[in-house]
Each structure stands twice: as structure tokens, then as C-alpha cells.
Amino acid sequence: MLTLKKHELVFRFPEVHARASLIVSFHRTLRLPDDNREYPLPPGLGNFPLSHVDDYANRLPAEWVEHGGIFFPMAQAEAMWISFSSTYPFAVKVAAGKVNAVSGQPWSPELQQRTAGAEQDYVTTPKQPWLDGFNVGEGVVRQFVAMPLGAGYTAEAQVTGEEVHGGLQIIAMPLRREFYEDTDDIVRYASFSSSAMFSVERAPSVDMGLAPGGLMKQKIYKDDFGLDKWDQEHTSRCFVHLLNSAQFEAVTGKKPPADVPTADDYAKAGLPWYQLYDEGKAAVAASPLLAALDSVAALGVKKGENPLPNNAQISKAPVVHGLTDVREGKF
Known about the structure:
There is one protein chain. The chain has one domain. Helix content is 11%, strand content 29%. Strands 1, 2, 3, 4, 5, 8, 12, 13, 14 and 16 form a 10-stranded mixed sheet that branches.
């Protein structure tokens, strides 16, 4: 069962367990400087507004209607992160333009391990509370940054040589009931609030895709359960389409979210960035396919273009250390 509730995507599997529920949401955030320096986690700036494709089927391309799912607006060069919230364990696959964000491999509905150097091509919840980008290093991701299809910047374009799908693809599957044990819920430790109709079929560059941006310190944690313990007979998937801000307003009649501050604005204000105490948790190895991709800034240099406005380095940012479990020790 897949539902949309208050701008959150909810996967439910009551046939597996009464607690088998996963909430997925998409968050606005600061775009990191794309300068090959590793940055800590930026803050959340509120959820993106999610809409049903079926509610606007007469204003959207036929292939969107065929895919179903949901959509939300992103400005060009805007960044995002995905949060996962559950008390019941789930395996979740995430792809951008049908390129797996963990392994770099083409989209497939089945869980896979040890593909193209990556130990797994999925994340697990509640251990993995969020995913901010493409797996390019052990404990390092390149931030998800929105770019229009057709410009060649997306991961889809660089991996497959074409830009056909765009958006995000997500599939979730619960732990088999017989292996379930109660697990504490994990939530994102910081969330901040940010202070004329026409058919999109007639508009160029409808779709947006996700490209690799700046480097961020974030681990994709290894699966503690093992491949055979996930219930791959009970799965649910969703196609998440991305519109640019102008097209979102044209389709829905609603104003898109206001512009977010730049990372430099945020740092100059002395506001904190975030770091997890997760030294004891093993990270999935980098995907060689994704590690070889050009970032938006690097590809812009090759093209003689400037795709990222306000891409200045940040000299120093205050870091707040976040969630950690309390160790009981010996008595």
C-alpha cells in the first residue's frame, strides 16, 4: 500500500506486519560548494511539496501518467536530501534517472550485492535515516543537485549516454516477519523551516534529473541482516517526477517554495552544520561507476559553462555533533 500524506510518501505492508510502515520525504537544503572539498551535513530547510500525478493527468506528459507516482518542484541547481523513517526494518533502493544511487548500476527491482565494487545496491532503515547523494567514496557522497534533462549534467546522462527518465525511482521491501525484532526509530536530528495555466506537454525541458554536486561526509551503512532476510515478494515502488519551478506553477497553479539561502549565506550567519557520531558503523564501498562521474562544476568547466551560481568556497563552518547511542558499559 502506497499513500501520500502531508507531503510524505508512506509505504505500508500490513500483510507482513502491523508495524511494517516506512515514511519517505524529500527535503530542501543548502547546495554545497562544488569545489572537491568534503563538507559536513547541511541542514534541512523543510519538505518539498508533493503532488499526485493523477490529480494533474490532463496537464502532464503521457509518459508521466503512465509511470504514475508523484512530483515536486526543484529549481535548477537546487539541492535535496531524502529521509527515511521507520521502526520496522526496510531495504530501500533509490535511483536517479534509473541509475542506482548506491551502485551506479541500471535500475532493477531486485536487491543485489557486490555489483561493480559496491557491497550492496540499497540502504536499510532505520539504520540509514537519510540519503543526500550518490555513493562516490567510502563515507562520502556527491550531493543530489537538480539539472534539466538534455544538458548532459545528470548521472543518467553520464552513465548511460542519454537522458530519458529523469526524476527518482524508489522501491521498498520490508524485513521478513520471522526475522523482525523491535528497532528504535531514528529521525533526522535537525530541521529548519525556510522563511496563468498551460499544458506542460507544449513546454520544452519538462523533466529534471539529478546530477552529482559537492562532496559530503555521509556513510551508506552496510546491511546488518543479509540479502535473504528481506521480503522481496512484498514490494512497493514509486516514480518521483521533478518539475522546474515555473512548470510546477503552470501545472498546479501554486507557487513553488521560495529560494533557499546559499551555503555561503548560511555560513556567514554562523549557523551550524552537522556531524554524526558513527565511527563504529561500517560504510558500503564506493561505486567505481559513480566515483568516475564529473560533478556539475567540473563538467561545466569542460563545457565552458557556468551551471552553478554562488559556488564560492566556505572557509570555516561550525559543526554540531549529532545523534549517538549511549553505551551502557560494564557495571
